[in-house]
Amino acid sequence: LFKGYISRAPIETDMELKIGNKIKLRAPTESGALLVKNLYVSCDPYMRARMRDFHGSYLPPFRPGSVIEGFGVSKVIDSDDQNFKPGDIVSGFTGWEEYTLIRSTESVRRVAADEDIPLSYHIGLLGMPGFTAYAGFFQVCSPKKDDYVFVSAASGAVGQLVGQLAKLHGCYVVGSAGSNHKVDLLKNKLGFDEAFNYKEEPDLDAALKRYFPHGIDVYFENVGGDMLDAVLLNMRLHGRIAVCGMVSQHGNSDPKGIRNLIHVIPKRIRMQGFLQSDFVHLFPRFVDEVTALYKQGKIIYVEDVNEGLETGPSAFVGLFSGKNVGKQVIRVA
Ligand code: NDP
Fold first, then answer.
1. Among 2, 31, 140, 324, which residue is least crowded by beta carbons within 10 Å?
2. Alpha-carbon gap, residue 102 to 119, rounded angstroms
3. Closest-lying ligand 1 atom to the alpha carbon of residue 325
């Protein structure tokens, strides 16, 4: 359960585990609802914004005392919606609980049974984070073969796919991450040309100059702050910056200004924020293309799977200190 609104970084005790609610395993008639058993739920950085008492965002805040809502993969137990039947595997908004009555099936889609695709991938590689990488890279970055591409939070749920798609597109790709283990993953498993641990770089501008002596054409922005400032110094003429997220700035009540923003003018940089939901019409194409690439062995996906709902709070909090290695999911059942 979500306990109450916060304006600082989340801590585990902002959430609590409640045991023992008895529920009826039936979807009420004429409700249009689905009763599902949750198999996996997703930990995503955007959920932090729902812990604030702020109503101007694209998703409403969580209600204090209510079950945390998020993406999940679930099995339909009972259905009052003619599009779903018991036994179907679905993906969409559900609750951090064992069983959920999903009253609005708007976000819910049936997942094709495929023994080659792990079920958890429907909240990762083939779910919202994977789609963010696909839509952000192809629709916002305007990538060209041989572009110099930089990805921050590169080993995470979104970043790891951005880098692999960029490589397949013929780009030169460098990623940054917060540990040497993650750097090793990027270079030796995920196929990035280079990677560096930003926490060990006293001068980010110098680090970027080392990896991009000719400058950066495309920056896929996941972190904001000092990294964005250093990137602006290293962008090439007509470079593109896709602003996907700024995880270092979430809940930051005193964000530092971006000192080097003025470089967008002489370098004619296009800097564009986006939400993956802007491109929802491309979702079926994304699923087909990325499924095929995965089955052909052209991309891989790294997950960090926690066992049991009781591990949810620590897994979620860990997103903001870089504890997760790859896409953070929680196996519920
Ligand atoms: P990740 O799986 O990458 O997890 C978050 C990672 O961010 C951590 O592992 C950590 O990696 C890094 N991080 C955390 N705090 C900081 C910090 N203070 N400074 C620098 N890095 C930090 O998350 P996702 O891939 O799911 O999300 C990546 C970004 O994309 C987020 O900003 C998210 O909000 C955004 N997003 C945007 C969407 C959109 O539609 N625009 C949709 C989905 C995600 P490390 O160890 O490398 O520091």
1. 31
2. 19
3. 9
Check for a shared fold between 12-124+302-331 and 128-277: no
Binding site membership of 158 for ligand 1 (Cβ less than 6 Å): yes
Q: What is the pLDDT of residue 84?
A: 96
Integer Cα distance of 269 and 309 in angstroms: 44
In this structure, CATH architecture of domain 12-124+302-331? Alpha-Beta Complex (3.90)
pLDDT digits (tens, 9 = 90+) for 188-243: 999 999 999 999 999 999 999 999 999 999 999 999 999 999 999 999 999 999 99
Residues of the chain with pLDDT under 50: none
Query: Does residue 92 have its Cβ closer than 6 Å to ligand 1?
Result: no
Helices (H), the chain: 128-135, 159-168, 180-188, 204-211, 226-234, 283-295, 312-318
> Which of 161, 223, 226 gets mutated to test ligand 1 (max ligand atoms within 8 A of its CB)?
223
Instruction: Give the CATH superfamily of 128-277.
Output: NAD(P)-binding Rossmann-like Domain (3.40.50.720)
Among protein residues, the one with the nearest Cα to ligand 1's atom 31 is 245
